[in-house]
Q: What sequence folds into this?
């Protein structure tokens, strides 16, 4: 098996619960107890109301493709082309940078998608999406 | 208190960009050459410079950079800083220079940028959240973000590839008249643009800025210094700046940019209307950037940017002169010098030094600087008084 050459996330104390959940194949987001909004990516304080009363909740893993691109020439040689880079808007509100695991020609703006956990190394799981 | 009319750009320096890094060149050397040209153009000596703003050079980035660059040039400033708002840095420098002058801190501010083209295989970002949540999915560099803006703009407003391509085509007509432009040997057609290699859907090679090496500078001066200038001073009439995200994924919208707030503030300070502009110099790292900027700066309705560029002639001789130097798409992007090229071109035109591409009776110009993925925006209104 070839070594994984792409950049891997290096969790921080703030983001560790997100990556730990992904490893268990759960999508877990921070939620602000003060304003009720879901948050992605993990923060120290709520970017909406600046409260520090943040907890973690499992979410549906469902959303829509807000926008995407098919990368035919990557800026980094670590990535094999083509690949679909996308912004998925989750049903709970936040948007995520991710990959859509599908043939590029299938991907459309507004398309419903569901979370797909990609165990890229024995330690690390990336949160990707597939057509729902 | 306002910066309206508080300072003027009195000198410009700009090196012709080169595609590669010349083997005998350094970023500091390119900055020094551009600075020397700008100071001489202003009719000043380097000892007259008492304010110093520089930009980050990718090829020579480090902490405490401004003093290092000033030391190389033998300049002892009473105000110094590095402006770090990406491609918006040069436009951001101009109003910061005026603010320092207006506050009585200095009289002649050198704003300088320069870089060597060390791109190629891009390394993952060093900023922790981008390294953690963007790079693992391949969101490295600027191409993907702008491609997703274009894709969403097409989805929401029906913007077409042909409309986007026309930006590159019209600007190339301008570049052909600009000896400093990197790509100035021939005009191109919409078919040329759409026939060039697809890089990141829906953006083709000719819609994407080309990294270069180069350097550029301007001198911003107090009214007292401006009175002794060699060329007609170009006054800062209005300025505005705004940012609401770093990574486009977390912006409030992909298609509504912070340009709106920067431009509104600039026009409000200047007290002039959009229709009064004789030319516009919007940042153009990609064709879609121009379309979104013209919309949000208020030159057309939201969503109508594609139709607007299609219906208007953006060339120096046209009904809506836009990036008369060719834009960065044709001029090239020597690091932050790409952003500076919009400032220097507006100044050239307003001073009446546009040569074969001179816009007739140019007195007012709108300039926009854009950093990151539509992240940082700095708008300027510049005026040559009659």
A:
């Amino acid at each position: 098996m070839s070594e994984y050459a792409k950049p891997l996330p290096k969790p921080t104390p703030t983001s560790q619960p997100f990556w730990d959940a992904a490893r268990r194949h759960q999508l877990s987001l921070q939620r602000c107890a003060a304003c009720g909004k879901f948050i992605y990516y993990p923060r120290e304080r709520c970017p909406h109301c600046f409260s520090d009363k943040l907890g973690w909740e499992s979410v549906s893993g469902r959303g829509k493709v807000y926008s995407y691109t098919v990368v035919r020439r990557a800026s980094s040689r670590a990535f094999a082309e083509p690949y679909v880079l996308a912004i998925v808007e989750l049903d709970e509100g936040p948007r995520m940078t991710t990959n859509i695991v599908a043939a590029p020609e299938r991907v459309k703006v507004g398309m419903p998608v569901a979370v797909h956990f990609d165990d890229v190394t024995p330690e690390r799981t990336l949160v990707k999406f597939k057509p729902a | 208190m306002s910066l309206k009319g508080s300072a003027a750009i009195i000198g410009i320096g700009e090196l012709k960009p080169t595609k590669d890094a010349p083997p005998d060149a350094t970023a500091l050397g390119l900055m020094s050459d551009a600075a020397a040209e700008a100071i001489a153009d202003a009719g000043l000596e380097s000892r007259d410079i008492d304010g110093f703003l520089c930009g980050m050079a990718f090829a020579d980035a480090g902490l405490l950079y401004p003093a290092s660059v000033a030391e190389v040039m033998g300049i002892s400033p009473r105000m110094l800083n590095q402006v770090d708002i990406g491609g918006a840095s040069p436009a951001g420098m101009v109003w910061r220079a005026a603010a320092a002058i207006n506050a009585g801190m200095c009289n002649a501010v050198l704003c300088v940028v320069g870089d060597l083209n060390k791109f190629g295989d891009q390394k993952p970002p060093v900023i922790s959240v981008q390294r953690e949540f963007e790079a693992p999915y391949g969101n490295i560099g600027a191409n993907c973000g702008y491609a997703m803006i274009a894709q969403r703009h097409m989805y929401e407003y029906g913007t077409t590839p042909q409309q986007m391509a026309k930006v590159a085509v019209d600007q190339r007509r301008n570049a052909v008249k600009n000896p400093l432009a990197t790509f100035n040997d021939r005009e191109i057609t919409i078919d040329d643009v759409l026939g060039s290699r697809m890089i990141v859907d829906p953006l083709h090679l000719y819609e994407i800025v080309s990294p270069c090496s180069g350097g550029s500078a301007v001198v911003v001066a107090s009214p007292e210094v401006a009175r002794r200038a060699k060329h007609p001073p170009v006054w800062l009439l209005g300025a505005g700046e705004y940012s609401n995200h770093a990574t486009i994924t977390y912006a409030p919208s992909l298609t509504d940019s912070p340009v709106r707030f920067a431009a509104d503030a600039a026009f409000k300070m200047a007290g002039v209307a959009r229709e009064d502009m004789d030319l516009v110099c919007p940042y153009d790292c990609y064709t879609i950037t121009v379309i979104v900027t013209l919309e949000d700066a208020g030159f057309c309705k939201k969503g109508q940017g594609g139709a607007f560029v299609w219906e208007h002639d953006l060339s120096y001789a046209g009904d809506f002169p836009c990036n008369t130097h060719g834009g960065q798409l044709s001029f090239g992007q020597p690091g932050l010098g790409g952003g500076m090229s919009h400032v220097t071109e507006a100044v050239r035109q307003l001073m009446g030094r546009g040569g074969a591409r001179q816009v007739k009776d140019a007195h007012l110009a709108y300039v926009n600087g854009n950093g990151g993925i539509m992240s940082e925006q700095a708008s300027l209104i510049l005026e040559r008084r009659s």
